[in-house]
UniProtKB/TrEMBL annotation:
GO terms for biological process: DNA-templated transcription. It comes from the Bacteria. Residues 1-59 form the HTH lysR-type domain. This is HTH-type transcriptional regulator DmlR.
Length: 294
């Protein structure tokens, strides 16, 4: 028998004073209600109720069990009500991961605006340029740059991510301005740790072929560090326009090799499929899609 239902029947018998009334509350026969009580007693190895032809009273064990059943059933009702509230209203905690640059410059302001609209939601934002398994790392949502792999996740594109090539005026004055990707082989190129030789500095050369992978003496896993090295006049940098745009507009960095810049890549929201996704996730996704695609 369903143990929780048996507990509910037992509590009803005590509160209503009879098996007949308890059976009516749970839409069953009095005989079935009696079976639930006997089933509990058999499971516990204790008599819960003293029965006579006229009345039923609780044993000492029954009194203690009745109090615990009331508490347990009340906790279950509260848990169900809390789950129902989560289903109807955006509330709870979201764990999100994003690339460092996009997360710092664009996603964080969007998150704070979302939290202002939905005060019952909290967000943990993890910034990393390492690609993790979203499900294994227990993220609700990830922001990824580039074509998403067919991973069984839902993917929503919210924009394009443009990489640009720049150098400081002092560097170009000292070493000259590269005219083609092939020229980069003779320059200091500030390299990003997470790029492989299949990504990053793979630019089309004059004859339509792919230029080789340039080398440099400064490598970092952080775009801001590469930006600072470029501003110091140490080399040529390939980083997002989002990171370098203000420096270009202010003249601190000069864009070079524009015809050979990498094609802009999609910015995607990735999250697990769930036919009953909670409002905290659905409203957050809709908020980002609206904000970045307007």
């Amino acid at each position: 028998m369903d143990r929780l239902l048996s507990m509910e029947v037992f509590v009803a018998v005590v509160e209503l004073g009879s098996l007949t009334a308890a059976a009516a509350r749970h839409q069953m026969s009095a005989a079935m209600a009696a079976k639930h009580i006997k089933g509990l007693e058999a499971r516990l190895g204790l008599r819960l109720m003293n029965r006579t032809t006229r009345r039923q009273s609780l044993t000492e064990a029954g009194q203690a069990y009745f109090a615990r059943c009331k508490t347990i059933l009340s906790d279950i009702r509260e848990a169900e009500q809390g789950a129902e509230a989560l289903r109807l209203t955006p509330r709870g905690h979201l764990r999100i991961t994003s690339t460092v640059t996009f997360g710092s410059f664009s996603l964080t302001p969007a998150i704070t605006d979302y939290l202002s609209v939905y005060p019952d939601v909290s967000v943990e934002l993890v910034l990393s340029d390492m690609v993790e398994d979203i499900v294994a790392a227990r993220y609700d949502l990830a922001v990824r740059i580039g074509e998403p792999a067919d991973s069984g996740l839902v993917a929503r594109t919210i924009g394009r991510y443009q990489m640009i090539i720049c150098a400081a005026p002092a560097y170009l004055e000292r070493y000259g301005t590269p005219a083609s990707p092939d020229d980069l082989m003779r320059h200091q190129c500030l390299d990003f740790s997470y790029w492989s030789r299949r990504t990053g500095w793979q630019l089309a050369s004059n004859d339509g072929s792919r230029a080789g992978y340039p080398t440099g003496r400064f490598v970092s896993n952080n775009g801001q560090a590469l930006r600072q090295a470029a501003l110091a006049g140490f080399g040529v940098v390939l980083q997002p326009e989002l990171l370098l745009g203000d420096d270009v507009r202010a003249g601190r960095l000069v864009p070079i090799l524009q015809p050979y810049w990498p094609v802009a890549r999609p910015i995607s929201l990735l999250y697990p499929k769930d036919r009953q996704a909670l409002p905290k996730l659905t409203t957050f996704v809709d908020f980002l899609v609206d904000r970045f695609t307007r």
